[in-house]
UniProtKB/TrEMBL annotation:
SUPFAM superfamilies: Nucleotide-diphospho-sugar transferases (SSF53448), Trimeric LpxA-like enzymes (SSF51161). The active site is at H361. The gene is glmU. One of its GO terms (biological process) is regulation of cell shape. In the C-terminal section; belongs to the transferase hexapeptide repeat family. Catalyzes the last two sequential reactions in the de novo biosynthetic pathway for UDP-N-acetylglucosamine (UDP-GlcNAc). The C-terminal domain catalyzes the transfer of acetyl group from acetyl coenzyme A to glucosamine-1-phosphate (GlcN-1-P) to produce N-acetylglucosamine-1-phosphate (GlcNAc-1-P), which is converted into UDP-GlcNAc by the transfer of uridine 5-monophosphate (from uridine 5-triphosphate), a reaction catalyzed by the N-terminal domain. Pathway: Nucleotide-sugar biosynthesis; UDP-N-acetyl-alpha-D-glucosamine biosynthesis; N-acetyl-alpha-D-glucosamine 1-phosphate from alpha-D-glucosamine 6-phosphate (route II): step 2/2; Bacterial outer membrane biogenesis; LPS lipid A biosynthesis; Nucleotide-sugar biosynthesis; UDP-N-acetyl-alpha-D-glucosamine biosynthesis; UDP-N-acetyl-alpha-D-glucosamine from N-acetyl-alpha-D-glucosamine 1-phosphate: step 1/1. This is Bifunctional protein GlmU. It comes from OCS116 cluster bacterium. Its cofactor is Mg(2+).
Length: 457
């Protein structure tokens, strides 16, 4: 097996992606809540733990550049003119030279930012073939329908002889079922030499990375193939493929959750994302969406039609044995304590709901902290925004807030205090006190009879 300390990854991310028909750069479109380029960065930096990662990007795609800089340690090079894959890799010449100097026999893997499903085991296998003596390793696959994919031509010993584009292939070559996935690995010390020999004498006038195979054979280098599952090779170029990729990734996340000990009662209706962590004995009912940065601990129940979405800066945690929903909405920064309850048509945002506290019905709890075993009645809202600034509401341990109450922040309801139903609370409430602000009830005898008589003339 290859030493990961000798692996450098170069991710090509400069393509325009015009088939996506979008103002958003293709590689920033998301699958499972993560941009396509994010999947490949995660693969290289976290799963493979490559020693070096470089990205070749378009200097005009600021959103992509910001994402790469904010979410990775990758070095960025720029491809201004789009002159083919060989030209794109050449833009990372500085990183290639450094990798070859660091370890001439190390591995450089070329990946694509729009191909997010390659498995880390596949990349390790390619690197191992370099370590074992090959100079180039090309990733191949055997699709049910090879269609117009480029073909990988090998000899009886399995050595790779050439990559033949479909339009240039003979009938015999088109009959080959081994197809080119695009991803390639190189012995570090040879890559710059091979790139320098690529020319653009073709109909498109571009420099093709695939030409490296025949160039390598001409100077006595060894080339081979690693075969992977077809699903790993899916490149996402348009909205149809984006939807296909989403389906593939959702099925993968659902299976991971269930094999990890969670119950999904209707898996196909549950949406998950890349940064969701689900513990054992969690139950997720149908039509639930869990997006962004969310951690659900063991024994929690997420009931039907709930929507949970955390962010990197304000993640969501749902502690053991908590109950969420049905029809609950948890926004960023919500933390639900052990055994806590968020019921139907309740929305929380930047709210800490401590152990055993209950917000059962029709409430908004935002910029708030609710103490252990407190009870928030139906229709209660924290009035946290004055049109300019947000303010915090604190509700103490064991406090009871009656139905249809408005808590105007900043305000504190101390431990054990009661708030009468229908109250508008603008001042702090002392521990174990009762606060009621609704008007005194007045009863006028026979008023209804006289009103009807007046209006039924």
């Amino acid at each position: 097996m290859a030493n990961i300390d000798t692996i450098t990854c170069i991710i090509l991310a400069a393509g325009k992606g015009t088939r996506m028909k979008s103002n958003i750069h293709k590689v920033m479109h998301e699958v499972g809540g993560l941009p396509l380029v994010g999947h490949v960065l995660n693969l290289c930096q976290n799963k493979l733990a490559a020693a070096n990662v470089a990205v070749v990007a378009d200097p005009n795609e600021q959103l992509t550049l910001d994402y790469i800089n904010d979410n990775s340690d990758a070095e960025v090079s720029f491809q201004v003119e789009k002159l083919g894959t060989g030209h794109a890799v050449l833009m990372a010449k500085q990183q290639i030279t450094a990798a070859a100097k660091q370890n001439p026999d190390g591995t450089i893997i070329i990946l694509y930012a729009d191909t997010p499903f390659v498995e880390v085991a596949t990349l390790k296998h390619m690197a191992a073939q370099i370590t074992a003596g090959d100079d180039i390793v090309v990733l191949g696959f055997e699709p049910q329908d090879p269609a117009q994919y480029g073909r990988l031509l090998t000899n009886n010993a399995g050595a790779l002889l050439a990559i033949r584009e479909y339009k240039d292939a003979s009938d015999a070559e088109r009959a080959v079922n081994l197809c080119n996935a695009g991803i390639m690995a190189f012995r570090a010390k040879h890559l710059n030499q091979l790139l320098a020999k690529i020319d653009n004498k073709n109909a498109a006038g571009e420099y093709y990375l695939t030409d490296c195979v025949e160039i390598a054979k001409s100077i006595g280098l060894k080339a081979s193939v690693t075969i992977c599952a077809e699903v790993e090779t899916l490149g996402i170029n348009d909205r149809v493929q984006l939807a296909e990729g989403e389906t593939i990734y959702q099925n993968k996340l659902r299976e991971q959750a269930m094999r990890g000990g969670a119950t999904l009662t209707d898996p196909s209706s549950v949406y998950l994302s890349a940064n969701v962590v689900i513990g054992t004995d969690v139950t997720i009912e149908p039509n639930v969406i869990i997006k962004g940065y969310v951690t659900i601990e063991s024994g929690a129940n997420i009931l039907a039609f709930s929507h949970i979405e955390g962010s990197k800066t304000n993640p969501i945690t749902i502690a053991a044995n908590a109950n969420i929903g049905p029809y609950a909405r948890l926004r960023e920064g919500s933390h639900i304590g052990e055994g806590g309850k968020i019921g139907n048509f309740v929305e929380t945002k930047k709210a800490i709901i401590h152990k055993g506290a209950k917000v059962n019905h029709l409430s908004y709890i935002g910029d708030a902290e609710v103490g252990e075993k407190a009870n928030i009645g139906a229709g209660t809202i924290t009035c946290n925004y004055d049109g300019f600034n947000k303010a915090k509401t604190i509700i103490g341990k064991g406090a009871f807030v009656g139905s249809n109450s408005s808590l105007v922040a900043p305000v504190t309801i101390a431990d054990g205090a009661y708030v009468g139903s229908g109250s508008v609370i603008t001042k702090d409430v002392a521990s174990n006190a009762l606060a009621v602000t609704r008007a005194k009830q007045v009863e006028i005898a026979t008023w209804a009879t006289r009103f009807r008589q007046k209006n039924n003339k």
